Every structure is written in C-alpha cells, then in structure tokens.
Amino acid sequence: xxxQRIIKIARGLEKAxxxxxxxxxxxxxxxxxxxxxxxxxxxxxxxxxxxxxGKIEIDINGAYxxxxxxxxxxxxxxxxxxxxEFAKTVLPAGTTTAIIDPHEIxxxxxxHGISFMHEAIKNLPLDVYTMLPSCVPATPFETSGFxxxxxxxxxxxxxxxxxxxxxxxxFPGVLNLDKNVMAKLELAKQRDKRIDGHAPYLxxxxxxxxxxxxVKSDHECTNPQEAIEKLRLGMYIMIREGTAAKDLNxxxxxLKDCNTRKCIFVTDDRxxxxxxxxxxxxxxxxxxxxxxxIKAIQCASLNTAxxxxxxxxxxxxxxxxxxxxILPDLESFKPDFVLKNGEIIxxxxxxxxxxxQNETPSMRGSVNVxxxxxxxxxxxAQSNIVKTxxxxxxxxxxxxxxxxxxxxxxxxxxxxxxxTLKICVIERHRAxxxxxxxxxxxxxxxxxxxxxxxxxxSHNMIVVGTNDYDMYIxxxxxxKSQGGKVVVNNGEILSKLPLPIAxxxxxxxxxxxxxxxxxxxxxxxxxxxxxxxxFMTMAFMSLPVIPELKITDKxxxxxxxxxxxxxxxxxxxxx
Length: 575
Fold this sequence. Notes:
The chain has two domains: 244 residues, Alpha-Beta Barrel (TIM Barrel), CATH 3.20.20; 191 residues, no CATH class. Helix content is 25%, strand content 28%. It is built from 16 helices and 30 strands.
C-alpha cells in the first residue's frame, strides 16, 4: 500500500477496503470509550472518525471494538496439539497473537524442536513469535535430550520471528555469574532483544541484581506483595492463569490498586480443557472482580505488544494492524467477530477462515529408555518416615513434609491410608538407566498408577502409583506408544493418550485430544485421585527450579538447599 493511498483514505478522499461503522472503540491509548468509524486498508487501520466509506461496510450499531488479544507467554506444546489445532481453538476466543517459548520440545530435540515449531506455524492466521529457550536443561540436576548453549541460540537470535531469550529460570546462575548463563544474557542485550524472567520469591538485593542483568519480566508472582516489589523495580508482571498454576485471583488487588501498564496476561501452560476460553477469559474474570475493563483489555493487548516491541499491535488507531474484536458488551468478552489483518476470520464463535493444510514436519521417536523391569521401581527401606513432596492444589510450588510409608519385605512402598504414594522419574532421552525415586502426597490414588512423558522441564517419564507392578505396566505402555499419558489399574490399561510428537503432542485433532484428556482424568478419578487435573499437576513434580521439593531422574531435589536430598528420616527407623 502506497503512502499516497494511505493518506487519501485517511482523509476520506478514497474508499477504504473495509469500514466498521458506528463502533464504540475501547481506546487503550487514551483509556476511554468513544464512538467512531474505523477505516481499514490492506490489513491496517488508516482512519478513525466519522463518515468514512468503504468498499465493504459493516454497521455494528454501537458494539464495542477492542484490539485482539495477545498471549504474552505460552508453551504451546502444553496444549498437546499441533499449532494448527491450537490456532483453531484460540482464534474464536479472540487471541490472534502468541509469544511462544518452545522450551518443552527443545528439551527433547534442541534446535530441531524450535525449527519444528516454526515450520508448523507457517500460513496460520495466528501470529506466533518465539522467545528462545534459555534453560535447556533448566538445571544440571536432570537429564534432558539436549543442552543448548549461547552459540546454539546465536544461530536463531537474529531471525525476525525471534523476540529474545525466554524465561531465565536459572536465577541462581545469574546471581552467581555462571559463564553459560551470562553469555545468553549478553547475546540478547547485544541485539537489544527482550529477556524474560522466572524468579519465584526472589527479593531485595538479589532481585535487583537479577533485573540489572537485563531480565525485564516475571510470571511467577503468586501474591500482591511479590508483584508490587517487582513492579516498583521496573519489571513487567506476567499474570498467569494456566491449568496448574492459577495466579489471577491472587493478583486482582494489583490490577485494581496499582499502575497496570506493566501488567500482562499470559497462560503459560494450558491443557485442552482450558483452551476454548483463553486470554478473553482472564479479561472477563478480571472485570467481574472489579478491574476497570479498559485496563484489563490493556493487559491483554497493548501492554504485551509494547513490552515485546511489537509497535503496530495492541491498539485501535491509525497505523496499527487491523487485528480487532467486535464485542456485544464488556462483560462476557465473547467476540461476535474476530478480524485478522482486516479480514473477518471468526463470526459468532465459528472460524470462517480456512486454515491451510501444512504438512507436519517429520520427527524421530523420542522415548529412548534403558530396558525396564518391575524391580527397577523398588526402594530399599531405611526408615518408615520419608521426606515427601506435598502437592499444593493449583500451584506449582510444593511443600517438603515428613510422612509415614509402609515397609514390605524390606522395601519402602506406598501408604494409601495416608496418601503417601511412590513417584518415579525415568530418563527417556539417552537410555542412561537413571530412575529417580521418592514419595508424593496429594494424588490420593487408592490403587493403580498414572504415568506421562510430559514432565517439566526435561520431559522424562514420570510415574505415580500405589504399587510397583502397575507403575511398571504404565511405563512400558508409554515406551510402546512413543510417549503419552496413561492410567493403569491391576495391570489393565484404563485409558491412554499417545503423544508421538516428542512425547508431548498428538498428531490428532483438538476434539480427539480433549476427549482423551477428559477420559484420562475420569480414569484417574476412578482409582481415587482427587485432583482436578492430575496429569498437569504430576507434570510439575519434576520441575527443580520451583520450591520446595521436586524429583528428577537423578533423585529428590530440595530447592531450599539447591541440592539433592535423602528421602529417609533415619531418626525414626522401623525396618
């Protein structure tokens, strides 16, 4: 589009391609709502005002027009579907841009995993930008499929679709001047690109040092005090509402009482059951809780675009991309229409734009384990009291507690009476034979076992069970299917979802994956599990950068000590 045509359309001398008439514009720039026509040409807004004419005109009779929504931090792999299926699901909810961190698939396939995701998003009516994973592996305390250093990241950092370095989880590495960590930070700073953070509970001078290193955001705030301290020091706060970690309610006071221009809405990790209502659901719930609608919409659009330097996104104004939502009200936040690049792609909740059929890039199998036997799950008892990972519902953080297990034939076994169950992580990338073993509270299984190859961050195989035999059967089934999720009881497969793409994603459509996820949860509940989504919760039991106690393929990890710990309390010996 020539400058001459832009100017002529803006002045009303030529017809626009599309004019939205009689719109109530939610103006995130001036923080007001005002009535005007919106003139659009070649995918961009060129004019806001009265009496514009277009080749196509839509009179929306006072409906609200907002910028479409941006997910500021998402591990798309967590949806367990390919990008095309993800797009088909979130576009009707009004999300037209996503900032992805392909951290999960990178832990399995390295740079090949990043390239796979980029190829898989081509030709979609969803803009996807990438933040390069900073911590593959997240720590040296687990075995991942690959180790990405600063040189590896330098091969992609200058790509136009790369916005910077993703969440720097290894904040101790930053504070202790780890050479590999510092090289990654310097790589982004040299290119003037963003560095996202991940620093739960980091405070005071250590937090200052972390921010001064170049890290500008954080999505781990779980209370207002933590968020306010980080806001005061100049950080963007990514308010997260995922499937396992739900922080929106806790941070509503920040949105009501503080300057929200550095607040961003993100989903981080969501299962299929939580995808159909996406960023729009966060806006709706914030408004229901008393947050100003314009400020909530800013958190879902302009704030995110400005943080990432996406200068033509996030507002309804001349020069901005015509990525817009037409809403009947500012309560439900269910769009009647979604526009992408000035074209209607969703009408009344139905995707009207045909998505091109991309051929899925080829990937090798990713479940490579040393031969497994039932006895590999045995734990020799040293005491009947064990240090246990205790689940906190809807949080990634866990507690370290002492619990009583049972002892049979000299072996430590699960105690279903007090919900102390065995948990194991089996290394699945390099066939090392590593198996981390421990105990967990919070799943409440009364029989059987559940297992998955989705286990943050290195995505080794994780198994929780009441007995070694069912845990063994579950692990073997995942080897056969080259990844996935499974529920086993008395040696019988009750439900399974194969995830043959990196052990993380299905090659089936969204409805199939959603149905199987629901079936898996029902199966887990049938053997006693009380968690809403046990597989999502289990996936974070192996994340050694989140307090307090976690498990990797190398053993039980205490984040307070930042080292491995013995599971047995030997002062209370009953062997």
